Amino acid sequence: MEHIVSFLDDKNKRYNQFHIQITGITYPDPHYFVERSNSSIYCLEYIMEGEGTVYVDEQVMYPVKGDIYILPGGHNHRYYSSRTNPWKKIWMNVYGPLCDSLMNLYQLQGIYLIKDLNLLELFEEFLRVSEQKDEGMDDIFLKCSMIYHEILARISRHLYNKPATNNTIAYEIKEFIDRNIYNKLTMEVLAKQACLSSSQVNRIFKKEFNQTPYDYILSQKITTAKLLLQYTNIPIKQIAYKLNFTDEHYFSNFFKEKCGVSPKDYGK
Q: 3-class SS at 88?
């Protein structure tokens, strides 16, 4: 049995950067089996219970509870539940240029199985947003593209951004910034999160990353703005608002100062 939310293919290519084909929850079924040849979609799945077998081309994996697997476009997919302990899983099938770009950006090409990374809350949020069809396709796809982005970013950090030193506090601050880039971040907020003074947070972070937390926050906001400009149709004013800049004018001037072009020209 499955709970499914599906979307019609956009034949007019209105949503040409990121499209949801189908998303949902699969409940335990010992006869569950899926096969795709030269798949046109990316499939991301989080295992809530049970176990099973997954093939990407000829590579085989055995995802269990707490694992995530990624089935990339352009490959053969084949996967099925254990007969004795079948999967319960939450998943999304998506496609579009944003999928390829983010996989490359976060160095996830060739990564199929991610162990011990609890992103259930993000998968549930993706499904919840997809179910709200009264909001309109534009809003659904925009919100879901951001959740998809965060899922891949969190996977990449889990795989690659392991602390290289004993200074775990600096890495915890960095991860907090990355997870909350759409929120208002101040030194007071970071200090409270780390249970340290603002000066201690500043000193620890700068020693580890050779820049202040404030500078890192701004650089991440610019990186996020570039992705939104390139792969969504969000107005510049809304991007400025989402990233907590004072106003559109300040955001545009700051972006041009850092990138050499205006947000409008970059988006083209």
A: strand
